[in-house]
Amino acid sequence: MKKAVMYGAGNIGRGFIGKVFSESGYQVCFLDIDEVVIQALCSKGSYTVLTVSNSNKWDTIVNHVYGVNANSEQAIAEISACDIMATSVGVNILPKIAPNLALGIKRRIKSHNAPLNILLAENQLQVDHLMRELIYQELDPTEQEWADENLGLVEVSIGRMIPPLTRRNSRNFRGLSMRRPGLNRRSLIRVTGLMIPV
Q: Residue 122, CB half-sphere, CA atoms under 13 Å: how many?
């Protein structure tokens, strides 16, 4: 099975990108620092996304998932071996994850030299340039040459808003408002199974 690494197991990571990867036939490794979420992903191996529209609601079980501590040696190994990758950690966190990305890229170059595309879902214009600069600070000139030819950094725009879950809205409102692309009606979405109130 192909492997996708999702750096960030938050609302966008689990509720959207991880779900899309899983539905596309990938095993999804979530890198995060929240040990409760990591343990839940590993113990269950799945989670549920509940989507609610004006006339219907449905659950989607997202399978073939697990979590790894983003600050571990295993995280670097996952980056070095994956087929595709995405980030959704917040632009202020990118400088903190760049060293691990660079270590995974270095190991990738030594082990199998396969190209890597990273989708950057960070709500920041030209985040691809920022991420390349941060990663290149950790690479030597030869590794930078490899990255020029083999590292795709793709700035993506997520057309779905999933607000953060708070204690207040987790008790009183179990849906998150969004507009579905291509539809005129209003829809709601909720990620369940791994929601942990603050």
A: 25
Spell out the SS3 assignment of 70-134: CCCHHHHHHHHHCCEEEECCCHHHHHHHHHHHHHHHHHHHHHCCCCEEEEECCCCCCHHHHHHHH
Which domains, from first to last, does the chain contain? 2-192 (3.40.50.720)
Q: What is the pLDDT of residue 158?
A: 78
Token pair 């999804």: residue: 28
Rounded CA separation 188/72 (Å): 36
Residue type, 68: V
Radius of gyration of the chain (CA): 17
* DSSP code, position 14: I
| Better-predicted residue by pLDDT, 174 or 120 | 120
Each residue's pLDDT tens digit, 68-101: 999 999 999 999 999 999 999 999 999 999 999 9
| Per-residue pLDDT, 162 | 56
Q: Please name the residue that has the structure tokens 């095993």.
A: 27
pTM: 0.79
For residues 100, 104, 110 and 114, what is the CA-based torsion angle, rounded to 10 degrees?
Answer: -150
Compute the distance between CA of residue 56 and CA of residue 52 in angstroms, rounded to an integer. 6
158-178 tens-digit pLDDT: 776 554 555 544 433 333 333
Neighbouring residues of 110: CB distance < 8 A, sequence distance ≥ 6:
none
